[in-house]
Automatic annotation (TrEMBL):
PROSITE patterns: CN_HYDROLASE (PS50263). One of its GO terms (molecular function) is nitrilase activity. The keyword Hydrolase applies. InterPro entries: C-N_Hydrolase, C-N_Hydrolase_sf, Nit1/2_C-N_Hydrolase. This is Nitrilase. It is an enzyme of class 3 (hydrolase). Coiled coil: none annotated. Residues 1-254 form the CN hydrolase domain. It comes from the Bacteria. Keywords: Hydrolase. Its EC number is 3.5.5.1.
């Protein structure tokens, strides 16, 4: 099964971002990808944090969800829609940062609300997601059936979740074949920790990792780290793109997955 991480440099304009996302999904499909992952906030990198509230969609309604469903159906693939802001009933001051998954028939297959909210302050850059977001509560995984009939269990996570290994341990009950990490890592945190954390999650859980990132200088002045990549269960980086829009493709090899778990059965050796 071919898998793909899409990298974007999203703008403050939803329409432009949706058009670019559609182009990248089409490129991934043309390369044979059956599981495609967009980056966090592929639909909007606003000029200020509250911009996301103005475009937040209700479940089952809105142009962002319609596009994701249509692209999955058009290209007959599993599409993890990065994240988009979803409205919260009775709370117009906050949204959830939500990853929606659509199956090859265009129907909604899974929803994950980001659990861990990022806060950072180095004296120059300050971020506090809790000012506009409410956290999710439940880990989510789903089964993706490949065109050859093979079923792959896929665990969902988003960006800052990457720093919390206990989430991924929960997702490994039962074990996943692949973990996805749509993200918008900042330049300083990405430079220091992005690949390190991704490879650690792949090695300790002995599974593939698809990391789809925002990557470049955005119109709002923010610079994101990029380096979207696919990593195998041994921790080997199979493909990567440093900055700019693009498609990162690799093969999910069930034989390699089985080989790693058989040769070093660490998942069976857990005691805590």
């Amino acid at each position: 099964m071919k898998i793909a991480a899409l990298q974007m440099v999203s703008t403050p304009r939803v329409e432009d971002n949706l058009a670019r996302a559609a182009e990248l999904v089409a490129q991934a499909a043309a390369q044979g990808a059956e599981l495609v992952v967009l980056p966090e906030y592929f639909c909007l990198m606003g000029r200020q944090d509250r911009d996301k509230l103005a475009v937040a969609e209700s479940a089952g309604h809105g142009p962002i969800q319609a596009l994701l469903s249509g692209l999955a159906r058009q290209h007959r693939l599993w599409l993890v829609g990065g994240t988009l802001p979803m409205a919260l009933e009775g709370d117009p001051e906050h949204a959830s940062n939500t990853s929606l998954v659509f199956g090859p028939d265009g129907t909604l297959a899974a929803r994950y609300d980001k659990i861990h909210l990022f806060r950072y302050d180095d004296g120059e850059r300050r971020y506090d997601e809790a000012a506009t977001l409410r956290p999710g509560e439940q880990p989510v995984a789903f089964d993706a059936t490949a065109r050859d009939g093979t079923v792959h269990r896929v665990g969902l996570s988003v960006c800052y979740d990457l720093r919390f290994p206990e989430l991924y341990r929960r997702l490994m009950q039962p074990p996943c074949s692949v973990l996805v990490v749509p993200a918008a890592f900042t330049w300083p945190t990405g430079q220091a920790h992005w690949e390190l954390l991704l490879r650690a999650r792949a090695v300790e859980n002995q599974c593939y990792v698809i990391a789809s990132a925002q990557g470049g200088r955005h119109e709002n002045g923010r610079r994101t780290w990029g380096h979207s990549m696919v990593i195998d269960p041994w921790g080997t980086v199979l493909a990567v793109q440093d900055e700019g829009d693009g498609v990162v493709c690799a093969e999910l090899d069930r034989a390699q997955l089985a080989r790693v778990r058989t040769q070093l059965p660490a998942l069976q050796h857990r005691r805590l």
